Amino acid sequence: MWADPADDPRNSEGTSPDGELATLEDYLANYRLTLRMKCEGLDAEQLARRSVPPSTMSLLGLVRHLARVERDWRNWITEDEPLSKLYGARDADFDGAVADPAVVEAAWRDLEREQAALDSELAAHTDLGERLGRQGIAVRELQVHRVEEYARHCGHADLLRECVDGRVGQ
């Protein structure tokens, strides 16, 4: 097992949260934490390693990708001018995931900043049926999409981590 259940910081035991929004937020928080756990203890080279050639996917690329999509989701819910692309051109989140400690540090800062910004904006919208932004996306749809995106990429992270050092997930 990845983590001893007694030491696992994710809420996998005990009472689940009450309500749909609290449940979605709990799942999202746990998947975010899972991604961090999959990356713990690795150096810049290991995080940037593209373990499944010819794919450009790496653990560091996933961190950068999720920072990018958190920003993109903010653009979905705003009436204002869209924020600029976080890493520029298409696939730059993965292509720019190079084995440089400064790139790793920046990626984690970007992810934390973008998560906090979207979380803050969504905190004012607790009605899951409320529609936001120019496209009128429902808060529920966005929250489910966020959970789905992190869950899918945590599955990728399991495989990438196993290729790096043999450690397998749960």
TrEMBL record:
SUPFAM superfamilies linked to this entry: DinB/YfiT-like putative metalloenzymes (SSF109854)
Region feature Disordered, mapped onto this chain: 1-20
InterPro entries, sorted: DinB/YfiT-like (IPR034660), MST-like (IPR007061)
Identification of the protein by name: Mini-circle protein
Organism: Kitasatospora aureofaciens (Streptomyces aureofaciens)
